[in-house]
Amino acid sequence: MSRTATINRRTKETDIALSINLDGTGQANINTGVGFFDHMLTHLAKHGLFDLTVTCKGDTHIDDHHSVEDISLVLGAAIDQALGDKRGIHRYGSASVPMEDALANVAIDLCGRPAFVYHVNFASKKIGSFDVELVNESLRSLANTAKMNLHINVPYGLNAHHIAEAIFKALAKSLRHAVALDPRNNDIPSTKGSL
Questions:
Q1: Pairing mode, strands 51-58 and 28-31
Q2: pLDDT in tens, 31-78
Q3: Does residue 54 contact residue 17 with C-beta atoms inside 8 Å?
Q4: Which of 47, 76, 86, 158 has the smallest CB count inside 10 Å?
């Protein structure tokens, strides 16, 4: 069974082509037009062992908001599509990842019902030219279209880059476990019989 998805989405603000293989080797080919976001998506692929290709032509002359939000919406939809009926997956995943001064705790449930909890304080408003509020925007959008519960807690951290990187690495590790096939269970992991 191929657990892949390819989605193209075009609006007046962005033109996105994205493909994902949940059973990949961590290969990333990312060109979003937003350098820091490329860096975060590359971590997501590498540490999640997903093969991920993303291109985006967006209205970054305005700012990075539309590109980051729309890519995240497409990524979540692609994950949901690649999972199919979710038969045999672990469903839940969590990880605690340190990045120098920062610690990120991420927990997810691929339950088919979006929920987003985000307890993160950044010491600065920018990482280079990247607005740190776009981390929240990205992950909320991802949770909505992947139809997952996504809880993110950063109890401490001083450097904004380290905080964001720890979050995306912890997300990658959490997703890697949640989407993995459980050798002990080929059923849909829910007493309802569907997710």
A1: parallel
A2: 999 999 999 999 999 999 999 999 999 999 999 999 999 999 999 999
A3: yes
A4: 158
| Beta carbons within 10 angstroms of residue 186's beta carbon | 9
> Alpha-carbon distance 49 to 24, whole Å?
6
Give the contacts of 73 (CB within 8 A, at least 6 positions apart).
9, 141, 142, 144, 145
Query: Count of CB atoms within 10 A of residue 128's CB?
Result: 9
Q: Are the C-beta atoms of residues 50 and 21 closer than 8 Å to each other?
A: yes
Low-confidence ranges of the chain (pLDDT < 70): none
What is the domain class of 4-179 according to CATH? alpha beta
Asked if residue 50 lies in contact with residue 22, where contact means CB atoms within 8 angstroms, the answer is: yes
Global pTM value: 0.97
Distance CA 107, CA 95 (A): 7
Closest Cα to residue 53, out of 80, 76, 19?
19
Interatomic CA distance for residues 130 and 139, integer angstroms? 15
